[in-house]
Amino acid sequence: MAIIQRKNPVMAGDSSDWREASYGECYEKELLGLRRRLASDPSCTVQDLEGTLKSLYIMDGADWLGRGEVQSISLSAAIAAYEAVIEELKGGHL
Length: 94
Hints:
Elements: H1 9-12, H2 18-40, H3 46-61, H4 69-90
């Protein structure tokens, strides 16, 4: 998997796409971390990842104080990365 290098649109003056860029960066980093974990830790199972994903879902639903837009984007990207890796594992693609 190739890591996509993205410029920070906020620093570049394009503030309309910072959410998308932030999500993409967080997603790629989480995906890379999960794949490294799976490659280096043979004891890591789908059940382990599903347990973490369940915790992420709980965190996502526990936003009664408001976590802020940046944290919400980061959490959404992490959830999507876990879902993608779990789906790949269950499908035998990893």
